[in-house]
Design a protein that fits this description.
- Helix content is 23%, strand content 27%.
- With 251 residues, the protein is α/β, with parallel strands linked by helices.
- The chain has one domain: Ribonuclease Z/Hydroxyacylglutathione hydrolase-like (Metallo-beta-lactamase, Chain A), CATH 3.60.15.
- The strands form two sheets. Strands 6-5-4-3-2-1-14 form a seven-stranded mixed sheet. It has a seven-stranded mixed sheet with strand order 7-8-9-10-11-12-13.
- Helix 4 packs across helix 5.
- The protein is globular.
- The termini are close together.
Length: 251
């Protein structure tokens, strides 16, 4: 299993793309699709026209908006570029089907797509993509918005993606004994913000969950002004990565 960070920042970060990750198992699985991540997907060398599954943690724009350009590119490639691609399965929390079907109806050329498109909402139950097992769990981010984290298991290895989350027991349980977790490190511990984890809490979760490795990501600009890796290390003694765009880690 390999993780490549397509975006380690937010909408407003001047040098990092917003949230996006690709996990390579027996499938190439995208986790979120924030602004500027499509260009990094192309730079990663992964064939975007062979991607069949996208998992969304929630639908704030910094985790979602490049999906629109990606889907448009797929339609044009297939309709007018002479290309072929497999179908696409779009998975996310409650509200996914209503939102995505509305987009398909509203954007020019999106519907009918020249390939099969399937929409699914996670229920909290595990499901499989080929030989890869996915465990979705609701996490706490902001009121009145469904948000999920994902645990991905393949060939005896497990990695977790928090999406956006505050500290919560559900996230600790999702991370328990995982080999690696990518956690929302929006803020430094000394300058915490609302609705997100800070670096100290990322370290706390890693310690409590018994993580093998911790990846800090989803940085607001203020997080790059402080040593968030050291702040997480005050709580956790394992391997810590400070995420950056196009960093690849073998799990």
């Amino acid at each position: 299993m390999r993780l490549t960070i397509l975006g380690s920042g937010t909408n407003v970060h001047p040098t990092r793309a917003a949230a996006g990750y690709i996990v390579r198992t027996d499938h190439n699985i995208l986790l979120d699709f924030g602004p500027r991540t499509l260009m990094n997907l192309i730079k990663s060398g992964v064939n975007r026209h062979r991607i069949t599954h996208i998992l969304f943690s929630h639908f704030h724009a910094d985790h979602f908006s490049d999906f629109i350009t990606f889907f448009f590119d797929a339609v044009i490639y297939t309709k007018y570029g002479g290309g072929r691609r497999p179908g696409m399965t779009l998975i996310g929390p409650k509200g996914t089907i209503r939102l995505l079907q509305s987009i398909m109806r509203s954007f020019p050329s999106f519907s009918p797509a020249p390939f099969r498109v399937v929409f699914k909402e996670v229920s909290g139950k595990p499901f499989s993509i080929g030989d890869t097992r996915i465990i979705p769990k609701p996490v706490v981010h902001v009121p009145d918005l469904s948000c999920v984290g994902y645990r991905i298991e393949y060939r005896g290895k497990a990695m977790v993606y928090s999406g956006d989350s505050q500290y919560c027991d559900a996230l600790v349980r999702l991370c328990t004994d995982a080999d690696l977790a990518v956690l929302d490190c929006s803020f430094p511990a000394n300058r915490p913000g609302l609705a997100h984890l800070h670096a100290g809490q990322c370290g706390q979760i890693a310690r409590e969950a018994g993580l093998g490795q911790l990846v800090l990501s989803h940085f607001y600009p203020i997080a790059d002004r402080y040593d968030v890796k050291a702040q997480a290390g005050d709580q956790y003694g394992g391997k810590i990565w400070k995420g950056r765009d196009l960093l690849t880690i073998r799990v």
